[in-house]
Amino acid sequence: MNNVIKFNEILKLAIEKHKKNNLIEAKDLYERALEINPNAAEVYNNLGMIYKELGDREKALSYIEKAIDINPNIEDAHNILGLIYKDTGEIEKAEAFFNKSIEINAKYVPAYLNLGNLFKSLGEIEKSKKYYQDAININPKYFEAYNNLMDLFERTNQNEKLKEIIVIAESQFKNNPIIKLFYGFYLYKIQKFNEAIENLEKIQFNEKQFNRERLRALILAKCYDKNNDTEKAFFYFKKTNEINYNFKNIDIDKNITLKVIEKRLNFFRNTEIKKWPIFKPEVLEKNPILLIGFPRSGTTLLDTILRNHPSIEVIEEKPIVGNFVISLNKIINENFHNLKNIDEKKIYQMRKVYFENEQKYIGSRDNSKIYIDKMPLNIIHIGEIVRIFPNAKFILSLRHPCDCVISCFMQSFKLNHAMANFLDLKDTANLYDCLMNLWIQYKTNLTVNYLAVKYEDIVLNFDESVRKIFNFLEVPWSDNVYKFYKTAEKRNLISTPSYDQVNKPIYSSSIGKWKNYEKKMSNVIPILNPWIKKFNY
Q1: CA–CA dist 64, 67 (Å, integer)
Q2: Could you tell me which residues come within 8 angstroms of residue 209 by beta carbon, excluding any fewer than 6 positions away?
């Protein structure tokens, strides 16, 4: 057998393995092919793709760049480079490489799709839409573009545009279950719950499409909940969480967040903390304002209301405090005892770290405005924040503990260590109990400048509740807040599970919703009862 025939046979087998996601076998075969033909640009390109999928960025870059050296006109290679740089947050490079693919081949639709994805991740919705539409115009049978455009319209609550693209997609792809899934989304959003149920009960996805099956179960659960069919609703909420659990990343561990809380509970219960030295006021001129609380306590509603004030900007769920805590841990050698005698130079250094991190998410700072850092679980780090920022302000969002807990269970969060606790009702209640014990401890042993705001008060007594917040923030009243839901309609991607609720006027149906599921909560209500009394519910 001559080398050309042997090379082609190995390459064909490698591509087959690659398509079946047998990455290691495919990699070995590609490498054998290179031994025969060390100048095969396509093989370098495919190896680069495999190493990207295996998470080895350096090898991926090396192989892709070698492919381009041999043949600068491989549009796929430039596209993969774009994906690599998108993953590392190097946006300008990513955009340049996607555009280079299009320059080489104006009809190369994956690059249009990836540009759409890039701008979607940046919240530039119109640009994102344009590139998805470009891909469809070039190839009306390119399903991924339809899928991503439907997702974009669903995520940004553009219901009529969602319906339009569903109709167009159905004309190209008959009886496609993914399109039916989005149609179920649409029917749910326009409150045709029975039709949505009928549509979604007829389809199902296998394990390879577990994410779509999770979404199907979630929307069915919400529809049954709206119809007051609590048995079926709970069944599908439970199924949603089971899918999330079965397919979660192996590194995600719900106990890690509990350990983080426990460490702070053990340290900050020491009443000697009250005697720690207070720092001179000249280093305390600038102070953060944080919006905190248990997830699903109303923080997104508060965010949406507050950002309507002309003097307020809300930074939504960015790792500003997370990065601050990482830096502080290095300075104190992960020992809270070292917080006591931390010197003013390090205080100044840590304050600078916080505001430099904040600046990344603000862009051009307007000194006439105040900036609110909204991340509910930053409540865990009040101890560290107050030590560095004794004049920091905290808006604490509260909601009936049972409503908080059942609502967390009924959401499908992007999983991390903390959110993994919400896959089970009892785990959710235990996390609530631990977190509120920590809050009471902070409040007892530290001087915390805070305002507690009940979700129920916002809903039932809007003006008085919002006025209290503005007084706390030292800003005047603004009638703009009355139309908060109108502004929400114009917002780009909202990163919380409440994205499909914030564009609606205030409604009271979510107050006391837990009572519909009281029997299902019988084993967790005893855990929550002390907090129901503590917060006067």
Answers
A1: 5
A2: none
